[in-house]
Amino acid sequence: MRRAARFFSIFSVAWIGCKADPHPAQENSATPSLAITPARIGEGSTKPSEIDNAIEGSVNGYRFTGAVTALSVLSDGAGARTIVYLFSTLVTCTDLSFTGWDERVPEGTGVVSLQLFAPTPGELTVVPTDALAAGQASATFTRTSRAKTPIWMTAKRGIVTLGASEHLVSGEIVLWFGGDHLAGFFKATRCPLGHEP
Fold it and tell me: What is the per-residue pLDDT across 138-147, written as a single tens digit (0 to 9) for each?
């Protein structure tokens, strides 16, 4: 219950910041109302309205409306980075073992990628760069496509709040992509076979 209350507290503060932004696109954008609450870590879902992974909001015309699949992989690049992928459809760890998986998973799947630098429990500030320092994260969004190379959009700002869990990468997100924003929570299963596309 404390985790859900903390999430809504973070989201409320972030929402107020969004409303104070002088850019009309952000002022008039619909704020996602999270009707789904996270289940407690280690307990699984205890009510029909409680799930482990969900995102609400939209990016570039693509709308997330609830449950997502969450998987975490180690970065292919240098540095102590963990990447969490949030998919709008069912995606397996095996799916992420293929090169160019963002052109293979179901067509039109919405994907949020979170790069976490040396992740430890607490808040990470989302910055619009891959050159991350301690306490920072980056976030990108794409729609998978087999017809053309997917384009990844970078979040301009946001907050990733990580929880403490031995076998999962768990947390909550509030992300802004220009005038669009997303909010949600996740418990990402570790995927040893997976890698970046």
Answer: 999 999 888 8
What are residue 189's DSSP bridge partners?
71, 168
Cα three-residue angle 105-181-132, rounded to 5 degrees? 75
If you compute the radius of gyration of the chain from its CA atoms, what whole number of angstroms results? 16
What pLDDT does residue 7 have? Answer: 42
**CB contact at 8 A, 135 and 121:** no
Q: How far apart are alpha carbons 5 and 1 in whole angstroms? A: 6
SS (H, E, C) 78-131: CCCEEEEEEECCCCCCHHHHCCCHHHCCCCCCEEEEEEEECCCCEEEEECCCCC
- Predicted structure pTM score: 0.76
- Which tokens hold the place of 79? 């540095």
Strand bridging mode 157-162 / 37-38: unpaired
Sign of the alpha-carbon dihedral angle for 43, 47, 30, 59: positive
The answer to whether 165 touches 187, Cβ cutoff 8 Å, is yes
Q: Read off the tokens for 193.
A: 């076979």
Give whole-number Cα distances, 102 to 4, 39, 127, in Å. 31, 29, 23
Instruction: Specify the pairing of strand 54-59 against strand 180-190.
Output: antiparallel
CB-based burial, 121-145: b 16+ in 10 Å, e otherwise = eeebebbeeeebeeebbbbbbbbbe
